[in-house]
Amino acid sequence: MAFSSNPTVLIAAPLVAAPFVGSFVATLVWRLPRGKPVLWARSACPRCGTTLGPVDLIPVFGWLLRRGHCRACAAPIAVAYPLTELAALAVAGWAAWAIAPGWPLWVVCGLGWALLALGLIDARHFLLPDALTLPLLGAGGVLALAGGRAWPIAPVDAALGAGFGYLALMAVGFLYRRLRGREGLGQGDAKLLAAAGAWTGWIGLPSVV
After folding, report:
1. What's the half-sphere exposure (Cβ side, CA atoms, 13 Å) at 6?
2. What are phi and psi of 69, to 5 degrees?
3. Which positions ≥6 away from 32 have C-beta within 8 Å?
4. What angle do CA 12, 13, 15 make, to 5 degrees?
5. In the chain, how long is the greatest CA-to-CA distance?
6. 58 Rama class: left (phi>0) / alpha (psi -120 to 50) / beta
7. Which residues of 175-195 are buried (b: 16+ CB within 10 A; e: fewer)?
8. Could you tell me which residues are beta bridge partners of residue 189?
9. pTM for the full model?
10. What does the alpha-carbon distance between residue 79 and residue 88 come to, in Å, rounded to a whole number?
11. How confident is the chain (209 residues) per 10-residue block, as mean pLDDT?
């Protein structure tokens, strides 16, 4: 059997990658709302600026080996970092349990990791950045167009889901504003539900809500 078609390898690959993705998600959650560079800046201690070494970058174990402190200035490193890495692993574990091996498994993992980042940012900053919601919306549309038989959502269903999802929450926000005289729902929520509709189709929207 070819290496690339071995089910064990296909399942193990996203599980191995997940903690490293979680490390990136934790960095993204800290930097993106603050307007700091995400892709091009080296990982460093936020207090003293010391660049993290290879050991520091090992997911979970790096934090444990350093006992949750910077090796240079001994400043505490938030436990949110290893917890996010473990959460990303849990996402991959659920996807591996629910999805057959193959490229859809990676796709579902990517969706889960993106939603993990959005959930953490929203919980801390009450913000759903366009930098995450809009690519997620586009990815749902591309999958519907290119996924073929391997992807269960047809392009028409994805388009309707995106449209209905966006308009439904925009309508709720409009009604709230008219009744209460203030904003009660941001456009980020509408864009996220539009992305959800693109991934699940319009039939899946009620279960998402």
Report:
1. 8
2. -135, 155
3. 38, 121, 129, 131, 132
4. 65
5. 65
6. beta
7. eeeeeeeeeebebbbbbbbbb
8. none
9. 0.89
10. 14
11. 63 93 94 87 80 87 89 88 97 93 92 97 94 96 88 93 94 88 84 96 90
